[in-house]
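Lab notes, practical 5.
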Amino acid sequence: MQKNNYSNFYKKGFILEKNFLTKDDKNKVLKVLKKNFFEYVPYLKKKTNLENTEFHQQILKLRKRKKLFGELYDKLNLSSDLRNIFYQDKFLKKFKQILKSEEVFLNGFMLRFDAPFDKRNSLDWHQDSPYYMQTYPKFNSGVCWLPVTNNSEKNGTLQFIENSNKKFLKSSFSNNDKYTTSQYSLNVSKTEQKQLVNLNQKFGDVSFLHMNLKHRSGINSSKKMRITIACRFHCMKHFNVGKEIYFYNDKSLRKKDKYIIKKKYII
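Output from the prediction step:
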């Protein structure tokens, strides 16, 4: 993986930068996690080393309490303190350099807790572009991927197909239940899979992935959670205001609003 070559974002579909976060940046992330899990994860009352097996055992135990863990997860995803990491000058500068634009838009903030051998929230091959149509059809936009744990093939780090970002592809949509992640999945050939790259990153590294890059969740065969935060960044030169997909879990809403379901996005 090459570093600091902005052209690789369009040529290969990704950029990886090592040690992008400062010690202060890392502490900000840890502070948010500790604040929200402090009451339920005894390990955090004494330590904050997120690579410690005890921490992961306690998080996995908490995850079994679906309702409580879901509420904590939603709260963390809405945390302005966590989202603010991506609004730092160095992140905004990087987004502008990559997209070659002085105006950028951030959305799609996300925190992931990927458990060992998880099938509930593991994503199959997909592009992020069907979810975020703001820069359709050129898709001058990307995903900023920031690991909180040290992510590797062992704990199911994100996998992608290098040079697969040239086209926006049609994909099939699935939405099983409220505890399963909705997704647009697509087929990837055996030839393409030979180009598979594991996004190996340590806490402090950051990667920038093109919105059309084909990727999926790896298989977490470890005994630990894979924890990652991310956001989407878009060029606003040719911007489709308001085009973002909203999923409706309520079947009655889906029946009433046929226009939204047919178009798959709100204008």
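Observations recorded by the TA: Residues 246-267 have pLDDT under 50 and may be disordered. The longest strand covers residues 104-114.
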